[in-house]
Design brief:
Protein name: Probable glucose-6-phosphate isomerase
Shape: globular
GO molecular function: carbohydrate derivative binding; glucose-6-phosphate isomerase activity; monosaccharide binding
Subcellular location: Cytoplasm
Keywords: Cytoplasm, Gluconeogenesis, Glycolysis, Isomerase
CATH topology of the largest domain: Rossmann fold
Structural class: alpha/beta
CATH architecture of the largest domain: 3-Layer(aba) Sandwich
Number of domains: 3
Bound molecules: 6-O-phosphono-beta-D-fructofuranose
Catalytic activity: alpha-D-glucose 6-phosphate = beta-D-fructose 6-phosphate
Helix content: 40-55%
Number of helices: 16
Number of strands: 10
Length: 430
């Protein structure tokens, strides 16, 4: 994996950073790295996430899911970091096992999925660190009833990934369900390289050792200089640009298989860095498609965005047939991969020509190793950004208000937040 910072330098973009600025920033990176290393060595909450490549036990994960012989599908019932990491892995890699995610409570979508499944050959993986998340538990109760209605012994097709306490742990113990622990000290958005993200990947037959090997490769690159660590280079430069007004970061992978990665990145970046009025808003984009929908804004809209362009340098390819159609001969005999690369490089240069900062991230292939590298590097980038911004990267207190309001609206307790919902200001136009 490599990161190319060329187009964020002040020689390439307005609001860019000078090499002198990067050198000064590097001394702050050294301090932040030392703080991170102390946190890792002490297994401190959050920093522990960066120890996962060495701490996660792939054999324990494989053993736990080995009981489910030859499933046709796996449904992960979870939300946020309890679903997005697994989804990123399974939707980036090919498998004979269909992987689905119930990470919302849209009744039509839940019903449509359950109606489509052969529940007798489906594995259900219920994932919740807290074991109390309303959406996850509600969906599990619906799935359990659907399995019972289908004459399927739900306890025989279900395993649970959860903390040591909470409703889900109680349920697992009550019904003697197979379960996997969630790692202590690792917030959900940082847990993809643990049981939380790797169990579904293992059920789908993916090489979870290679995922961890890729992550370990990026772990080995963490250093006291951003010039020696792709992860720290990306995180530090993202921070420096946010300080210069680039308060949005468009994550734009040029690979359909990385579309869900952008969703995972969005939670990681938003929930970690959106604190104390600070943060950098992650935008989800996909190349080359969003050149035809969002590039106009990125290139000619407000000068408030960093664009992160991601691609694999090696991929399977499809030839474009020769053609005698006027004006299209230049495409004939080329390939879709060559066209995708040309679009990537043209978009990169187009942004630079308009003085719009952009970073290039390249992995070799979208395979288990490459995904492990990319995911670990983004987590480490997020951690160093949080240290430089001096925010508490590993908590998410702002999400609790809405949870209390929703629970109160459903009669789950007396919460003043629910009262506030009833007092909404109204100006209705029909
Ligand atoms: O794994 P849990 O405890 O169900 O939480 C799911 C998600 O909800 C959040 O706690 C936010 O509400 C995320 O940080 C987390 O990934």
């Amino acid at each position: 994996m490599q990161v190319d910072l060329g187009n964020v330098l002040d020689t390439a973009s307005v609001h860019g950073v000078s090499r002198d600025t990067l050198e000064r920033l590097d001394s702050r990176v050294a301090d932040a790295h030392n703080r991170i290393e102390r946190g890792r060595e002490a297994n401190e909450h959050g920093y522990e996430a960066l120890n996962l490549p060495r701490r996660t036990d792939p054999d324990a994960i494989r053993d736990a899911v080995s009981r489910f012989d030859d499933p046709s599908a796996v449904v992960t019932v979870g939300i946020g970091g309890s679903a997005l990491g697994a989804a990123t892995l399974t939707e980036s890699l090919e498998s004979d096992v269909d992987a689905y995610y119930l990470d919302n409570v849209d009744p039509e979508a839940v019903e449509r999925l359950l109606d489509s499944l052969d529940l007798a050959s489906t594995v259900v993986n219920v994932v919740s660190r807290s074991g109390t998340t309303a959406e996850t538990l509600a969906n599990f109760l619906v799935v359990r009833e659907a399995m019972a209605d289908a004459g399927v012994d739900w306890a025989d097709r279900t395993f649970v990934t959860t903390g040591e306490e909470g409703n889900l742990r109680d349920l697992a113990e009550k019904h003697d369900l197979p379960s996997l622990p969630v790692p202590d000290g690792v917030p959900g958005r940082f847990s993809v390289l643990s049981t939380v993200g790797l169990a579904a990947a293992a059920i789908c037959g993916h090489d979870i050792d290679a995922i961890l090997d890729g992550a370990a490769a990026q772990e080995s690159r963490l250093s006291d200089s951003l010039f020696d660590s792709p992860a720290y280079a990306y995180g530090a430069v993202s921070y420096a640009l946010a300080e210069r007004g680039m308060r949005q970061n468009a994550m734009m992978p040029y690979a359909e298989s990385l579309e869900t990665f952008s969703e995972w990145f969005a939670q990681l970046w938003a929930e970690s860095l959106g604190k104390d009025g600070l943060g950098q808003t992650p935008l989800r984009a996909l190349g080359a498609t969003d050149q035809h929908s969002q590039l106009q804004l990125y290139r000619a809209g407000p000068r408030d965005k960093l664009v992160t362009l991601v691609r694999a340098t090696d991929r399977d390819d499809v030839s474009i047939p020769e053609t005698d159609l006027d004006g299209l001969a230049y495409l004939g005999g080329s390939s879709l991969g060559e066209l995708l690369d040309a679009e990537f490089e043209a978009t990169e240069a187009s942004l630079a020509a308009a003085g719009r900062p952009n970073v290039r991230i390249e992995i070799d292939r979208v395979d288990e190793y490459g995904l492990g590298e990319l995911l670990y590097a983004m987590e480490a980038a997020c951690v160093i950004y949080g240290e430089l911004a001096n925010v508490d990267t590993f908590v998410q207190p702002a999400v609790e208000w809405g949870k209390r309001a929703a629970r109160g609206l459903l009669g789950g307790g007396d919460f003043e937040e629910a009262d506030a919902v009833a007092e909404k200001e109204r100006l209705v136009v029909e």
